[in-house]
Design brief:
six-stranded mixed beta sheet; Trna Endonuclease, Chain: A, domain 1; single chain; 23% strand; extended; alpha+beta
């Protein structure tokens, strides 16, 4: 399986690859693409996820030089042309559906206007209602990618493990691999003040049970206020706050429990 490195992120563009990694390897990633409020491909992997898959020879990470360059004038023209075509097509579809819906209630609208002393035909009311709303660039729905773009067929080089490691630390990578090997699902924990969120099952069906914060240097003291804040945070969101460290190639975990006196 070959994934793509773009802007220091390992990305999945193929629906089949994403499904395979999620079902068989418990790799979640995060949506980069979106069509309005609907998340879509590509999926960006955590550096720790990518390292794990690379070490197990499950994936290869490719770098496409042309994708690292700014878009050319031809690229911009093609993009803008595609956007205009999509917009016009969606406006046409919307108008047809809106016309169908209005025709079912047009008589009631005309009758209501007559009661107010406004005498207009059904056709006039229909045009007025259609002109009130349409699809714009801001509201149009972009198509969702299910396969890699054609540009991925260009010459590429494979990215070494060391390049991915630059985006994380040895401690984070080791902690992630240890938790993953225990059968957990793991996602980014930044929104809860940690490095990882740990689930007993797929996040679509389970809540996270642990917030993991990695301690990079075990020789440095952790201020008591930081421990209290982290422990209270875990309690407030009903999760266990866990400190993880790497010492002599051994992963150590310390759970912070908060009890109100």
């Amino acid at each position: 399986m070959e994934l793509c490195l773009i802007n220091n992120k390992v990305c999945i563009y193929s629906r089949k690859d994403w499904e395979n990694l999620r079902r068989n390897y418990r790799i979640i990633g995060a949506h980069l693409g979106a069509s309005q409020a609907t998340p879509s491909l590509p999926i960006a992997l955590l550096p720790e996820e990518a390292l794990l898959l690379l070490k197990r020879n499950i994936i290869k990470v490719a770098v496409y030089p042309n994708l690292q360059k700014p878009p050319t004038q031809a690229d911009c023209h093609k993009y803008n042309s595609t956007k205009v075509q999509l917009l016009e097509a969606e406006q046409c579809i919307y108008k047809k559906q809106r016309t169908k819906d209005l025709k079912q209630i047009i008589d009631k609208i005309v009758e209501a206007k007559k009661k107010k002393g406004v005498h207009v035909s059904n056709e006039t009311v229909l045009e007025e209602e259609l002109s009130k709303q349409t699809v714009t660039v801001d509201t149009m729905i972009w198509p969702m990618l299910t396969e890699a773009p054609d540009s991925f067929k260009e010459p590429r080089t494979l990215s070494p493990l060391a390049e991915i490691l630059q985006e994380t630390t040895l401690t984070k990578a080791a902690v992630f691999e240890d938790l993953w090997s225990r059968g957990y699902y793991i996602t980014c924990g930044r929104k809860f003040g940690g490095d990882f969120l740990v689930y007993r099952g797929d996040p679509t069906a389970f809540h996270a049970v642990y917030i993991i914060r990695c301690v990079q240097d075990v020789t440095k003291d952790v201020h008591l206020s930081q421990l209290i804040a982290f422990g209270r945070l875990g309690t407030s969101v009903k999760k266990k706050a866990v400190l993880a460290s790497l010492c002599s190639n051994t992963i150590n975990y310390v759970t912070i429990n908060w009890f109100d006196a």
